[in-house]
Amino acid sequence: MKKSIFYIALSAILFSSMEVALKAVSGQFNAIQMTCTRFLVGGIVLIPFALHALRQRGLHLTGSFLKRSLLLGLMNVVVSMTLYQLAVQNANASVVAVLFSSNPIFVTLFAFLLLHEEIHKNQVAALLLQLTAILVIINPAHMQAGLLGILLTLAAVVTFALYSVLAKRGCVEYGSIVTTCGSFLCGSAEMLLLILLSWAEPVASLLGRVGLSSFARIPMLSGYTLQDFPVFLYICIGVTGAGFVCYFKAMEISSTAMASLVFFFKPMLAPIFALLFLRESITPEMAAGIVLMLAGSLAALVPGLLQTRRQQAVSIEPPEAS
């Protein structure tokens, strides 16, 4: 339990700093370029660790692993992250970030349907608190985001949640590092093919006509400077590589529902990081939402911690004298 909490906390910190890091280099890179590059670099950095994990388990990569990695990469890097970028273009970025944190609702549902994991009362209570927090933060009565942006965000959340649950099976068999590395490399390779396709004149013209010119003639080698290189490395290696590994490591040694607590803590930590590094103010609605998110996190964590403590107390209790 302590190990899973450690991985959850570390991935929550890394994921929560993502918006601050990305904003630091905003305008330097095309959105799709950054998505492809950070997953590609993150996957390459993980290769030595993945090979070491394979040797430890005595495993070899198979055709089924490649097929699964292609599917996971398609769902996460290509589909979910592309939908996320489209959502940011059609809605306020803060609204998109908060809505994306509703991931545990769909993770719990898919884990129940596909992995047959139990849904406990405290998890239901936590999810209801999280949903209430999201509604408080976005304030539907005075919502600025358009319907298209909200639908795109929800589609990104659903596909990412499905990706998380399906990746659970790979984590059990090959481990979190191997599964993450495989999905990153396959997803970035698939996106590279789409980037090359974006340079085809008929495709570029069509994207321009339908208002998606940012997806036409996507650059791959522009925007890099020595000044922004440390932030770029942090995004690729820290947020993307280490963040996802910790997330799936928590899932590997606990459950998908427990690992998804990362998205409970993210709405609390991200505004704090934005306040400290970007001087963005925390609104009363955001503060109320943070409190509700904290309550949801406690509702999900406390029963498991109490149960673990009881089990440890029983295991160390001396046997009665006969």
TrEMBL record:
UniProt-annotated location(s): Membrane
Domain EamA positions: 3-138, 148-299
Transmembrane spans: 31-53, 65-87, 93-115, 124-141, 147-166, 178-200, 229-248, 260-280, 286-306
Keyword Transmembrane: yes
One Gene Ontology CC term in the entry: membrane
Family annotation (SUPFAM superfamilies): Multidrug resistance efflux transporter EmrE
UniProt keyword terms in alphabetical order: Membrane, Transmembrane, Transmembrane helix
Membrane topology listed for this record: Multi-pass membrane protein
Family that this chain belongs to: Belongs to the EamA transporter family.
PANTHER family: EAMA DOMAIN-CONTAINING PROTEIN, INNER MEMBRANE TRANSPORTER
Protein name: DMT family transporter
